[in-house]
Model the fold of this input.
Amino acid sequence: MDALPVDAATFLILFARVGAVLMLLPAFSEDSVPMQIRLMTALGFSIGLYGLLGPKVAPVAGSQAALPMIVIAEMLVGIAMGMIVKMLFSAAAMAGAIASMQIGLASALVVDPSMGGQSPLLTRFIGLAALIVCMTAGVHHLWIASIAQSYTLLPVGGLPPAQDFAMLAVRVLGQATGLGVSLAAPLLIYGAIFNLGLGLAARVAPTIQVFFITQPLNLLLGLSLLALVLGTMLTGFAAAMTDFMQNGWSF
Done:
């Protein structure tokens, strides 16, 4: 019973970082998942990791005066880690948005809880497909492992390195942009060639509304190409996510 206050403080500190990360990770942070489920998931992960990480947290849990600042610092670290993973995962949505524009489905909008509003149909589809592939490939295990490893890289009790996190966020944002464009590269090439052909046809027959007439053909060819390259796109995305989770956490 004498150790109960220290154990409770240790769990609270652990829950602050773990819960903050899980509230922003893909799949775990979806608005379609009820808040109660997300809270119970965060509590479950905290309980599961308590035996592994408790000894690393316990030395700073005995200071009652510093406890509020430690909890706030741990929440900031968790939010920063979750946002970085979410930024990299947005490459899939970026690739879907580019594909939608090239095929002509940019105006076909659906409700997207992960984006907090509406997004193009292909953006939502590719985002869900990327999430399923990542879960199938075990990338979510790396997300959880990175939480445990973060206690070695970012020990409890100190302020989060804001400048290092900012530099990492800038690097990840550039990496996500490049990844999203590279995933959608086949659709970009297709769109350039198709629109060039339409432009030449419009010059040959200026009185014919070529762009409206050929829109069904654009949809047919674009969706067929997307079906051919979708597997490679998703595999490449999962590989990039795996590589970052294993080697990208460097400050």
User: Anything to note?
Assistant: The mean pLDDT is 84. Residues 161 and 183 are 32 Å apart (CA to CA). Strands lie at 109-112, 117-120.
